[in-house]
Amino acid sequence: MKAATGLELWQEAARIDLAHLSGKPYYPPTIRSHHAGLIICLARQQHPDLAPYDDPEIVWRLEKEYHAGLLVASADHGRVAHLLTQYTDRFAHDFLASAPPKAQVRTTI
Question: How far, in Å, are 7, 60, 94, 108 from residue 32 at the CA level?
Answer without folding.
Answer: 8, 18, 33, 37
